[in-house]
Amino acid sequence: MSASQIPPATAVPGDDVPTLLVKIFGKDRPGITAGLFDTLAAYSVDVVDIEQVVTRGRIVLCVLVTAPAADRGAIGSSEGDLRATVHSWADSLHLQAEIISGRGDNRPRGSGRSHVTVLGHPLTAESTAAIAAAITSTGGNIDRIFRLAKYPVTAVEFAVSGVATEVLRSRLAPEAAELGVDVAVVAAGLQRRAQRLVVMDVDSTLIQDEVIELFAAHAGCEAEVAEVTAAAMRGELDFEQSLHARVALLRGLDASVVETVRKEVRLTPGARTLVRTLKRLGYQVGVVSGGFTQVTDALQEELGLDFAAANTLEIVDGKLTGRVTGDIVDRAGKARLLRSFAEQAGVPLDQTVAIGDGANDLDMLNAAGLGVAFNAKPVVREAAHTAVNVPFLDTVLYLLGITREEVEAADTHIG
Fold this sequence. Notes:
This protein has 16 helices and 15 strands. The protein is an alpha/beta fold.
């Protein structure tokens, strides 16, 4: 068909054009949607909007159409005929129908659109009511609500308009903390799904452990190392100085312990699912760690990560020397590596996601398009774009608008 043969698109009806909102609800079954449109087709109406929801086997189908031609001054069947026919069709299927007359399309959504993802384990009616009320208090309007997941947490998403994303985030953050639920607020638009590089911290994020503490347990200095680690993660100590101090305590440890520590590392629940799903959906995934390449290299191979960077323990004559070699991966280094990975991946920085839990992750979280504090220290939760406080790493997928059904679909295609 040539360009001259393509019919012009039907214009969106103006506010003065008569329209009908047709609502169908009842027990769901195959063929309801097709049957309704077959019924409406006899009246030469134009479809303006459609929305359908099925919850526990019950369907709510809403269709906004222009009024029949006869009601717009042309020859044809009338609105009364359409109403009678639709009700008769619905009755034959034991469905209920409601038809509301009006004019024009839906009112335009307000500017400042956001996605508000709420994670609960469980998600109570009380917390849902409080979040909805908080959104309303900002002047925001809830345009749509739908469930992203029921496992391992209940995740629902509110599409909100009429309020700036930052204003909404500031209002909901303290509400979420008081309610004990996780609430993530991100700007709507194509940018959300365009985020194609995810970079994670390792210790207490991708894995449940602090790797240096695993080494320290074999060196008999676990308590001393843990004390320094905790202070560094709280931001009370310079990371590089604390790293050198902790690694020095490992001097003389036999290098064979590296393989033992690799076997002791425990992945965070949901870590495999997160990486597998992201990779299946075309994302690139990397890790940056203040820990050691002796562990991150193994994780890269095991999980099929695209990028990995960490510090390297020096080993001489089969013994740990108590030193590290090469550039130190510290707070600034993590942000630098995020930028480097993004450049190598060909992904703009604002299309990256960073996940971490400690103070040395803050520069990376702030540099990314979306920074996620995962079971993080208070200073990190307050500074990150959003926080997740449930113990399942794959819940980060829901912040990207990826549903549980999409996760399971990705799994079925993994060889």
